[in-house]
Amino acid sequence: MCRLAAYLGPAVPIAHVVVDPAHSLLEQSQHANEAKLAVQGDGFGFAWYGDDGQGPGLYRDVLPAWSDGNLLSLCQMIRSPLFPAHVRASTTGETTRLNCHPFAHRRWSFMHNGQVPDIDRIRRKLEALLPDELYLARRGTTDSELIFLLLLAHGLECHPAEAVRSVVDLLRVHSCYGHGCDEAVRLTCVISDGASIYAFRHSSDARAPSLYVAETGNGGWILASEPLDAETLVWSAIEPDSLVRLSQEGLTRLELDLALERAA
Question: Domain with 62 in it: what CATH number?
Fold first, then answer.
């Protein structure tokens, strides 16, 4: 499984999350504590938003995060009030730059930790549900990017909770969803429009990949697959089957009922 982190608050260098903490995202790329694999070496990436309403900027590569000579310099020099970052352990899709997270479309960025194990069997059905604009926006071959586009197609920009419910329902209908697959459907996703960050956890076997949140000393917030620094920050786990929003007003838990099956 992958590791991810995101920050929202007063502008700070990206290194504040990716490099500097004792258990930074860079450290997790080689020594993850709560992932199936300790090493996440199939590429990395980060996106960042500015105060000018532009963005997101995007930097991704197929190198392991610890071996990219540009990563430290960029993370130290780029300051942003909102940025997601990701290190990849691939489950679906080749190790190419187009398959590295985060994915971006217009103002939105998206990253995913988890899998849809039978995605190749159901890909054609799901892609047929995309409007032409979003189908043509697809660049890679991952289940993650397809989930992102499906969220956009189902109203993410106006109704995030309803979009999440709709996409989970699609997977319940079309995927093996724990029946006939060796692996479970697992979704821990972080999404941003440049003003807020949304995050949700869900799985077909009640074992969604981990996600924690902490308030920083400067009035900001960090989401991370694993606590970055347990000594200086207080971390709380995001509950499974829940959707949270981080904004300038703080942390908000949004109504998200994934307990009952719905018709697709």
Answer: 3.60.20.10
Residues whose CB is less than 8 angstroms from the CB of residue 225 and which lie 6 or more positions away in sequence, other chains included: 2, 3, 4, 5, 28, 32, 34, 35, 113, 188, 209, 210, 211, 212
Task: Copy the structure tokens of residue 26.
Answer: 């860079």
| DSSP character at residue 143 | H
Report the DSSP beta bridge partners of residue 243. Answer: 200, 254
Q: What is the mean pLDDT of each run of 10 residues along the chain (264 residues)?
A: 94 97 96 86 94 86 93 96 94 86 97 94 96 97 97 97 96 85 91 97 93 95 96 94 95 80 39
Residue 264 lies in a domain: no
3-state secondary structure of 44: strand
Contact 31, 91 (CB under 8 A): no
Structural domain boundaries, residue 14: 3-254
For position 89, what pLDDT does the model report? 86
* Half-sphere exposure in the Cβ direction for 235 (13 Å, CA): 16
Q: In sequence order, which residues have a C-beta less than 8 Å from that of residue 52 and are 6 or more positions away? A: none
User: Do 103 and 145 touch, CB atoms closer than 8 A?
Assistant: yes
Please, is 177 exposed, middle or buried when counting C-beta atoms within 10 Å of its C-beta (0-12, 13-18, 19+)?
buried
Count of structural domains within the chain? 1
Residue 109 lies in a domain: yes
pTM here is: 0.94
**Helix, strand, coil tally for the chain in percent (to 5):** 25, 30, 45
